[in-house]
Amino acid sequence: MDIFDKWFIRPQLNRHVRRQACLLAALLLFLLGLTFLQASPAAAAVSVPKLAGVAPAANALVPDSFLVTLTVNSSVPVKEVTASVGGLAAVSLTKQTAACGSSCEYRGMLDISSLPWGAFSLQLSAVDVDGTASAPFSLALKHNNPPKLQPASPLPFDVADPNLAVSLLCSDDDPDGCSAVKMSINGTLLAQGTASIDQTIAADKWLGQQATVQLNATDASGLTLNQSFPIYVEASDKLTVVAHEQGLVLDSDANRTLIWNAYDHRLRIHHRDTDAWETLPLLVPEKTDLNVHLTPDGAMGGALDASSQGLPDGYYQRGLDPYGTYVNFEWQNGALEPLDAADIRVNGRYAVYRAPGSGLRELFITDTLTGSEQFVGFTDSYDYALDEDGTVVYANGGQLFRYANGAAEQVTQDGSYAYSAPVMDGDTLLYARTNRSTNASELVLRRTGGETVLPGATVVPGDYMTAGGWTAYTVMTAEGQKQLWLRSPEGEDERLTPTSTSGSRLIAVSPAGDAAFTFDGSIYLSRSDAAGRQPAEQIVSDKATMFWRDGWQAYLGTVWYEVTGTAVDPGTGSGEDPDPGQNPDPGDNPDPGQNPDPEDNPDPGQNPDPGEHPDPGGNPDPGPSADIDGNGVINMKDAIAFLRAFGTKQGELHYDPKADYDGDGAIDIQDAFGFAKLFMISLKP
Q1: Is a pLDDT exceeding 90 seen at residue 636?
Q2: What's the pLDDT tens digit per position in 413-444?
Q3: How many Cβ atoms from other residues are within 10 Å of residue 564's Cβ?
Q4: pLDDT digits (tens, 9 = 90+) for 659-669
Q5: Where is the composition biased (Pro residues) (predicted)?
Q6: Residue 589's pLDDT band (boundaries 50, 70, 90)?
Q7: Residues near 222 by Cβ (< 8 Å), separated by ≥ 6?
Q8: Which end of the chain is more exposed for a tag (fewer CB within 10 A), N or C?
């Protein structure tokens, strides 16, 4: 029996138990599955978006416009995230990254300028694609703007003589107003007050220098405003003030001054005879490429404009990227007309400009007094010259042409040379001549009697000029010395600078043979009289613009000076009126209109019939150069200018045809190789 039980009955019983256990386990798993399936919809129903990482923080002080940032955590895709304040329209915040999974950051700007000063509540909400909204999220904030400063004096680029009037007013939306106003120069505190300053301070410590003004305002809540900008300290006994203006002086005539106020960003024309003002409808943030001049009935030129972006009062600290959009325009009879033009030159009543784009372009001249526009010809080199009589000298196909009285004639004929960078006065013409075979360049003086090569003279635009038959030019010797020279109408040469200096450059020359040049941080004037050439006199800082107009004149910041004792009777003077409005700060802002390229430009084709105006096509710019900013010096500023243009295409912001070496309309890696090669070549002695 024991054997029967061991080998037959017990195994049967064990199999039965195991079978029952397996059935029980399967039943339990089935029940658990049903429970999971029933519970899943309930879990989805209670999942809601959650808000985290909100900025600004609770109880923060926020200005009229501020940035809201938050993170939304949600297992379900989010449809919309909004921020709202009181009765203002809700603002949708933007997701910062498309592929962010279940945790995404959102941002947006809120404008609460219509709200009064003080506390308010910010409401934030997120809604997913199923329509489920986040829990209510309310953030307590305080509307409070920083204080504002209204300086009547000093303004950016102002001049202390060496005393400086300080007139500052602080205002604030806080009912308790401003608590402190301070004014310093180069870090030295010179004046302070509670809500205003009205006194005169002495700045003779910085006589003859450019200095930096620092303004500071604080309100009752502890919010601060800091402003800093350049001024000049000048008190030379060789200068007589003609006008002290409310902005940087750009141009002037007998009754008007064209200025740019760098604090409120406005271009204005001051009618000095009536003290009336014209304000142009532009917000000019900085003087980068600022090229505007007076015309008989208004002004003409180009400038950056930030009107569409908006720009608060205050000196804009220039960065790598210019702020705003560059516009060319004419201002006349109270109306601003945009111009489809480039490289505008203005001289008296005449303006010359080319069609935008690169390659072969149409060139036009306008009489701004009558409004008549005439086609001049085609140019593939943008370094044309214009005189006060409306004569234009320009280059096409490596040859120079002169336009006068409605007709153009070819000036140069030798096809073995490429001619460029013309400068003229009367019957005197200076230009660069480059041998097409050797690529060697030389400066040529042309008069009725023929051509004369000036040995050793550089061909960099700005290194040579002419007036009244006198020619000033720059020489680089075989030893690497930089020298400034002056040639008389009779062909006699004399050296202007007593020693070699790489920092010296020519400024202007007068019809009587006076010459202004820089030396050791100042502008010097070399004058000639019956006794011969006199020792050069130190006149003003080299930050000034100096020019001849019935006497020597200078613009330094907000002040227009006459060099004492140099005025002549306009009836006996030469009548020469060089463009004085260019380059108010020659060390920082080269004239944007001057960008000649003296290199060769093979196969430019024939000068087309002016009456036909054929399609100029894609004829490339004349010869490549690493001088992207066009100031005649190849340095790191040109590298920065190329980097700013890199990756752009024709028609896009920052595209520069001078950086498009292969002329394909896109500045890419091939152009980068071209720039690097030319840049390295320029470093060779």
Answers
A1: no
A2: 999 999 999 999 989 999 999 999 999 999 99
A3: 14
A4: 887 766 688 88
A5: 581-595
A6: very low
A7: none
A8: C
Could you tell me if 54 and 69 are in contact, meaning their C-beta atoms sit under 8 angstroms apart? yes
Residue 129, domain CATH? 2.60.40.650
Contacts of 240 (CB under 8 A, 6+ apart): 561, 562, 563, 564
Q: For 504-623, where are the E strands, in sequence order?
A: 506-509, 515-519, 522-526, 528-529, 532-533, 537-541, 545-548, 552-556, 559-563
How confident is the model over 236-264, as pLDDT tens digits? 999 999 999 999 999 999 999 999 999 99
| Residue listed under structure tokens 């009912």 | 175
What's the DSSP call for residue 659? G
Residue 68 lies in a domain: yes
CA distance 198 to 147: 18
Q: Do the beta carbons of residue 665 and residue 645 sit within 8 Å?
A: no
Domain boundary among 207, 233, 259: 233
Global pTM? 0.75
Q: What pLDDT does 622 receive? A: 37
Q: In whole numbers, what is the pLDDT of the chain averaged over residues?
A: 84
User: Identity (one letter) of the amino acid at 646?
Assistant: F
Task: Report the amino acid identity of residue 381.
Answer: S
Is cis: bond before 56, omega within 30 of 0? yes
Residues of the domain holding 670: 638-683
Q: Tell me, what CATH number does 167's domain have? A: 2.60.40.10
Helix then strand then coil, in percent of the chain rounded to 5, is: 10, 45, 45
**Which candidate, 559, 561, 536, places its Cα nearest to that of 547?**
561
Predicted local confidence at residue 585, as pLDDT: 40
- Note whether 180 and 192 are within 8 A (CB): yes
**Contact 170/217 with Cβ under 8 angstroms?**
yes
